[in-house]
Amino acid sequence: MTVSLTIENLSAHYGQTQVLKDLSISVAAGELVSLLGSSGCGKTTTLRIVAGFLAPTSGHVKLGDRDLTTLPAHARDIGLVFQNYALFPHLTVMENVAFGLKQRGISSSDRAKRATAMLERVGLAPLADRLPAALSGGQKQRVALARALVIEPPLLMFDEPLSNLDAKLRVDMRVEIRQLQKANGTTSLYVTHDQEEAFSISDRVAIMNAGRIMQLDTPEVLYQKPANAFVARFVGFENLIPMKTVARDGVIVTAEAAGGARLHLSQDAFGPIKDDFVLATRPDGLVTRGTGEGIPATLGTRTYLGRAYQYKCETAAGEITANGALSEMFEPGATAVLVPLPEQCCILDPEN
Amino acid sequence: MTARIHPLLGAFAILVFLFLLAPLVIIVGASLSDTTYLTFPPQGLTLRWFANIFEISAFRNTAITSFQVAILGTGLSLLIGIPAAYALNRYRVGLPKWLGTLFILPILVPEIVFGFSLLKTITIGLGLPVYPSLIIGHALLVLPYSVRVVGASLASFDFSVEEAAISLGCPPLKTFFTVVLPNIRAGVIAAFILAFITSINDVSISVFLTGPGISTLPIQILAHMEQFFDPTIASVSVLLMLVTVGVMAIVEMTLGLTFLTK
Ligand SMILES: Nc1ncnc2c1ncn2[C@@H]1O[C@H](COP(=O)(O)OP(=O)(O)O)[C@@H](O)[C@H]1O
Ligand SMILES: [Mg+2]
Q: Which residues form the ABC transmembrane type-1 domain (chain B) (predicted)?
């Protein structure tokens, strides 16, 4: 049974403070969507509203065509995996996993059978009789995963499930979570503040800021075509350069940055370009050259990156970070031009 | 490697122990004395003062009352104290700070004042008979132990465990009994024992709340002492001490004493 999750126009307050602002997300059946954002942006709050532990000020939560908004938490049938595992300390691994089955009135022999099968899937069958206190962090999180999966919920939610694990285990576990989620086809909402984790595990990622969704798209689109300045900065477009169109010739647009530097951009590459726009680039999307068409710059601090040099540059359009070839090294104080590589740049509408 | 203890500190510690234990030794000695007055060291050895306790019906009756009041009062205090401690910990962020202090007031207020105000409100104000007054009075007296000791074990309880249970389909009240309570069991038992011992030894509250025909053991000891200054007093005290030691021994065997001081 796979169903979609729809979160419609959710607003939430703690006292007078609004922490979610008209938030809408839809997760298709069987899809894994991540909420990605810095600490305090409202990810956990969103999850707790969907789980039924918090009531929204306004808005709706729907699973398939069932409206959950006023349903009590224990009747929602949602599998939850917490950052701190939240295993039952007084129950064995087996009893932890069987807990949800017991609440569903499943006979003890069936419970044992299904819990054992699930423990085998996460590789913990030999530890069935241990108490949680005798498990490592990774084992605990596997038990938590098994406990949430065994009830075969239509929706799984994860709140930073890997944050307490070490780096190597984090990578292994996220692959494991993704495989289990795909095999079961369970619709999932996954919360993390780690960009790499979100991009690697998700079908789509919602980038959040201060209680709002800034963009909800596939990792590829987010990484290459951010919709606004916030998302652009978030995915590494460090340089946001305001530009003005000064001439149009067919698909070629001539635009000017502060200080008069002119660039020719093709609308075949960037899509329609407005009169006012922002050119966003990562440091490796700007090449530092001695001469040519580009943005004149005075070079500052140089950093050796291995594959290139990186320069902090002063330009009329503000401070810009750009990379330069290893074959052409500049000393601090040198003047150069920064040439954008169109395939590495994107164009933002300043309205967004 | 053993920690080095300064000789003066060691001597001081021994003095403190002697000071604490001396009265107990004297009481035990006096209870065995074959004289009709309290004396130490005992002159001659007899157990007749212990036998005497059981011949005086007032001791028997008040002992029964003391046990009943201690068990019912402590039970009542836990019935109020556990939910209160739960609420104070679970909703800590949303609650004013003074609310927690409210529940330890019976410890902060001088006992004699507390006893007198109980007399004014329960016995005189509400007109309740002696027996229920005693139970309510003792429940309030030991409420701070219930709230604080249960609260201490709730403070280290991770409430996301409770949410995990709810998300797995367990309704909130059932979750409290199947998930929260088993994890604070030690705290509840510790609270019960501390409260029970406090109640069974209490004088200052009981002296206001006992009435004609119904009394507690410590009050009866006082009453007896006013008339007879014989070693019976010492032997009752020894018995009361043995009950306390017995309770402690059970704790030590089942849970380990350290958890009372943790
Ligand atoms: N119980 C609470 N009372 C008041 N404010 C809260 C509470 N929980 C969270 N907040 C605030 O709400 C905002 C969103 O919190 P949260 O959803 O936990 O963020 P995230 O999970 O993205 O780090 C934060 O600014 C946080 O300080
Ligand atoms: Mg969070």
A: 63-251
Find all residues with CB under 8 Å of A63, minimum gap 6, and list them: A3, A4, A5, A6, A76, A78, A154, A155
Query: Which residue range forms the structural domain that includes residue A142?
Result: 5-232
Query: Radius of gyration over alpha carbons of chain B, in Å?
Result: 22
Q: Within this chain, do residues A34 and A112 fall inside the same structural domain, yes or no?
A: yes
Does residue A109 sit in the same domain as residue A222? yes
Three-state SS for chain A is CCCCEEEEEEEEEECCEEEEEEEEEEECCCCEEEEECCCCCCHHHHHHHHHCCCCCCEEEEEECCEECCCCCHHHCCEEEECCCCCCCCCCCHHHHHHHHHHHCCCCHHHHHHHHHHHHHHCCCHHHCCCCHHHCCHHHHHHHHHHHHHCCCCCEEEEECCCCCCCHHHHHHHHHHHHHHHHHHCCEEEEEECCHHHHHHHCCEEEEEECCEEEEEECHHHHHHCCCCHHHHHHCCCCEEEEEEEEEEECCEEEEEECCCCEEEEEHHHHCCCCCEEEEEECHHHEEEECCCCCEEEEEEEEEECCCCEEEEEEECCEEEEEEECCCCCCCCCCEEEEEECHHHEEEECCCC
Alpha-carbon distance of A346 to B56, in angstroms, equals: 99
Which residue from A minimizes the CA distance to B180?
Answer: A88
Pocket test of ligand 1: the residue of A7, A10, A17 to mutate, having most ligand atoms within 8 Å of its CB, is A17
Residues of chain A contacting B169 with CB distance shorter than 8 Å? 74-75, 77, 100, 103-104, 151
- In chain B, which residue's Cα lies nearest the Cα of A97? B168
Distance CA A200, CA A188 (A): 14
User: Do residues A142 and A247 both lie within one domain?
Assistant: no
Contact B57, B49 (CB under 8 A): no
Distance CA A108, CA A114 (A): 10
**Do the chains contact at B169 and A104, CB–CB below 8 Å?**
yes
Does the structure show a pLDDT above 80 at B5?
A: no
Mean pLDDT of A101-118: 96
* ipTM entry: 0.88
Give A52 to chain B, closest Cα distance, Å. 9
Boundary-marking domain end, from A211, A232, A253: A232
Task: Give the Å distance between the CA of A275 and the centre of ligand 2.
Answer: 40
- Domain's final residue, options A200, A232, A264: A232
Write the pLDDT tens digit of every residue in B101-125.
888 888 888 989 999 999 999 888 8
Looking at the domain that runs over B59-227, which CATH code has it been given? 1.10.3720.10
Tell me which residue has its CA closest to atom 7 in ligand 1: A14
Residue A138 has pLDDT above 90, yes or no: yes
